[in-house]
Amino acid sequence: MKKTLLLLFPILLFSCNKDTFNSESAVFTLSGFTDTGCKEGAKAKGTMYHDVRGEYVNYKVKKGDDGGMHIYFDHVNSMFNCGSDKIWVETSKEGNTIRVHEIENSNAANCYCDHDIHFEVGALEKDDYTIMIHKNLHEAYLSEPYAQFTVKVTNDSKGKYTISE
Asked: Within a domain: residue 5?
């Protein structure tokens, strides 16, 4: 009996690995969404395509409690109509492409303002992912991406994608 326990102990000890991530049972989700609302002093009259300054996306990758990798996004100075009642984000994943849809429920005021949007997506395997950001109303699902960049998902990777300086 002691020999059996001594032989089984190392097998049991090393078969439990916290670093194991089962991608087949993992669910891709969006969480942690926050929006600053219209930033003070960030309003512009007229067309949406005014001289935007300082729009960028910061991202960082961390391992989640589920064992998968998660990307934390900060979209800084993302422009929306200042008459919007609600702003939200929807995401989808197909293969190694992650689509981010930034959507507003607009009352179509004749001004625009910058928002900072924060959210997290995961669980992901370590790999390279193409991030496509689509803007505004539901029609954005059919449009070309507003911004597109690649994120290398590894332990504690981070970066910045500049949309406009």
From this structure: no
The β-bridge partners of 133 are: 100, 147
Q: What is the pLDDT of residues 113-165, one digit of tens each?
A: 899 999 999 999 999 999 999 987 545 455 688 899 999 999 989 999 999 88
11, containing H or E segment: helix 2-15
Task: Evaluate whether residue 156 is within a structural domain.
Answer: yes
Task: Identify the helix (H) or strand (E) that includes residue 31.
Answer: strand 29-35
**SS3 at position 4:** helix
Rounded CA gap, 90 and 77, in Å? 18
Domain count of the fold of the chain: 1
In a domain, 3, yes or no: no
CA distances from 118 to 26, 33, 37, 45, 57 (A): 22, 5, 11, 25, 10
